[in-house]
Structures are given as C-alpha cells and as structure tokens.
C-alpha cells in the first residue's frame, strides 16, 4: 500500500498572516528604521566624498590657471629683457634688470623679477670680430591670490657679436 502524503493548505484572508512567522508585522517594525539609518549613512559618505573631489578639482584648476598666468608674465618679462638688450648699445646687466611695471588689469597680482649674467669676450673663431658676449637672461614671475601662489621661470642665452 502506498500512502501518499498530502499537504494541508490553509487559506487565509487577505491581509491576515499566520502567527509566529518571521515576516510578521510585529517583528518588522524595528528593521525598517535600521535600514533607513544605514542608507542615510551610506548616502552621507558618498556626499562627503563627492564634495571633497569637487573641492580638489577646483583647487587644481586654480593652480593651473595661475601657473599659466605666471608663465605668460615670465615670457613677457623675458621679452622686455631682450628688448632692453637689443635696443641698448652694449648695455650692462643693471640696465637689463631694472624693475618691470605691469599695467594690465588681469596681471595686478603678478610680479616679474629679471636677472642677468654676462660672460665677456668668449672666443668664437667663426664670428667676424672673433669675440662675442653671452648674456644669460632670466625672468621669474610670481602670481598670487589669497593662499595660492605660483611662480614660473624662463631662462634664455643671448649671444651678441662684439
């Protein structure tokens, strides 16, 4: 004889659950609060991380911007130094390194410092006069705003026939 086991299925009314099961409404009341707290903490952490990333990107862009501004100011200073060298009649370094005044509105927070060293009478057999003067020119620009300060330096050697 074969006995078959039949399951007894209980029918419940809509909204009615059996007593003692783990999914009962009485046991679920505290778990939603815990899940809400965990989700809030995770979202807060993501918000803080995103805020730090945005702040870091803004600072990096500011450094690049003022770095480019300092480089362009140093280039302008070098052009002034070369102009003073070419337009002067064998000028001394004191003439070349006079202060550069910046009158452009966007460069008010930048300062340019010029430097000059000269090697007199370098032997050069291929030059008609036989001697040349070598000027080592430098221009350093510093641009600052608030707590941010950048500086760039440009160096050039100019050979001038005696």
Short note summarizing the structure:
With 162 residues, the chain is of the alpha+beta class.
Task: Characterise this structure.
- Keywords: Membrane, Transmembrane, Transmembrane helix.
- This is Mannose-sensitive agglutinin biogenesis protein MshP.
- The protein has 162 residues and is α+β, with helices and mostly antiparallel strands.
- The chain has one domain.
- 41% of the residues lie in helices and 27% in strands.
- The chain contains 2 helices and 3 strands; from the N terminus they run ααβββ.
- It has a 3-stranded antiparallel beta sheet.
- A hairpin with a 2-residue loop joins β2 and β3.
- The model has no long low-confidence stretch (mean pLDDT 81).
User: Main β-sheet: number of strands, strand sense, barrel status?
Assistant: 3 strands, antiparallel
The rough form would be described as: rod-shaped
Strand content: 25-35%
- Write the element-wise H/E pattern from the N-terminal end onward: HHEEE
**What oligomeric state best describes the polypeptide chains here?**
single chain
Number of helices: 2
Helicity level, as a percent range?
40-55%
N→C terminal distance: 127 Å
Q: Low-confidence parts, pLDDT < 50 over ≥5 residues?
A: none
Q: Biggest sheet, strands in spatial order?
A: 1-2-3
How confident overall, as mean pLDDT? 81
Rg estimate, integer Å: 39 Å
Tell me the count of domains: 1
- What is the β-strand count? 3
Structural class from helices and strands? alpha+beta
Protein name: Mannose-sensitive agglutinin biogenesis protein MshP
Keywords: Membrane, Transmembrane, Transmembrane helix
Transmembrane segments: 32-50
